Amino acid sequence: MTTETLRRTPLYEKHRALGAKMVPFAGWEMPIQYSGIVAEHRAVRGAAGLFDLSHMGEFYLEGANAGRALDRLVSSDIAGLETGQARYGLVTNERGTIVDDVIVYRVAPERYMVVVNAANIDKDAAHMRRHLPSDVRFFDGSLMTALIAPQGPRAARILSRVAGMNVDDLMPFGLAETKVAGNVATIARTGYTGEDGFEVFLRNEYAPAVWDALLEAGKDDGILPIGLGARDTLRLEARFSLYGNEIDETTNPIEAGLAWTCKLDKEFLGRDAIAKVKEEGPSRRIAGLAVDGGVARHGHTVTDKGREIGAVTSGTYGPTVEKNIALAYVPVPLSKVGTALAVRIREKDVPATVVKTPFYRREAK
User: Fold this and answer.
1) Which domains does the chain carry?
2) 226-244 average pLDDT score
3) Are strands 224-226 and 49-52 parallel, antiparallel or unpaired?
4) What's the pLDDT tens digit per position in 137-160?
5) Please, what's the b/e burial string for 20-37 (b: 16 or more CB within 10 A of its CB; e: otherwise)?
6) Contact status, residue 78 vs residue 267, Cβ threshold 8 Å
7) Which positions ≥6 away from 4 have C-beta within 8 Å?
């Protein structure tokens, strides 16, 4: 896709004015960094950061049977959601592999919002339409919905200054309809950084004013605009899966360490295949690695005494943990914490050790 055909979020001009370096991502022209990935990463861990996630997809499902239909499409307990609650889960196929990872929000008794990954919008929409009953209304609102995410330990106080509510009243994975900087919005206490934070859903035309209001409200608290580069280092320290890296339609939830998202005592698409893998045990598992002497990247080979045994799915330098970290699929016997392995970087096998994940966990209040 050429630069001319890349989509732009309603905040594109704001990013350019802030000096962001723009790159193609999932069909969009997105900011990769502003002041620098490490500085942005540390701002989110220590103060607050502001993300433009308007490239993400938002589907809306309505009808008396919408919750029941979603419960059969998503691995987690969607039927148990109360209005004003959200839940993470997987959209799986008949083979029990992962179509996408999503968050489902129950915004009203008979209305749900499903947030999907930007690269999967068309695929996910086709998959859902194919499996939804005719009495459930489906609408893809991705291109008319903006998503702005203040994240970090000071995010609640900053957002509360411009919201029509004290957002600290929201429980984790709670949501509420309110106003932000005078504009109608839905606020959810969700995020992808390993920190406390919020995601603000609103119409495209409201996004620039809300973006500016949040940056101004957080000026004295050290808020920074954050690009996709730091978003990736933050989520990897927190050991969150990235679709296309840790999970895709070749991976099952058990080997991916996402068995906890699968409610196997209900019926959903792919349930039996997943239950079979759980019962028999997977042949490989995702493992966390601390890499000594080099930065592992997606696709690098993992070795055991020179023998190729797996591949890195994601790797980076972790600015908070101050070491090189990675995730990789390895055979189950080699996935035990403390196992000595290596990652092949520039044709050299660099020592790596299997470590406990997440690499970083924020301290409870």
Assistant:
1) 3-53+144-237 (3.30.1360.120), 283-355 (2.40.30.110)
2) 98
3) parallel
4) 999 999 999 999 999 999 999 999
5) bebeebbebbbbbbbbeb
6) no
7) none
Interatomic CA distance for residues 197 and 206, integer angstroms? 20
Q: How many CA atoms lie within 13 A of 39 on its CB side?
A: 9
**CA–CA separation, 93 vs 251, rounded Å?**
11
Q: CA-CA distance, 302 to 160, in Å (whole number)?
A: 46
Token reading at 282: 């997977």
72-97 tens-digit pLDDT: 999 999 999 999 999 999 999 999 99
Rounded to whole angstroms, what are the CA distances from 231 to 37, 52, 70, 227? 9, 11, 28, 6
Question: Token pair 């004295």 is at which residue?
Answer: 220
Structure tokens of 320?
């908070």
Residue 122 φ/ψ region, left for φ over 0, alpha for ψ in the -120 to 50 degree band, beta for the rest: alpha
Torsion of CA 244, 245, 246, 252, to 10 degrees: 40
Would the pTM count as exceeding 0.85? yes
Contacts of 24 (CB under 8 A, 6+ apart): 1, 3, 6, 30
- Only one residue has tokens 């969009």, namely 28
Q: What is the pLDDT of residue 1?
A: 47
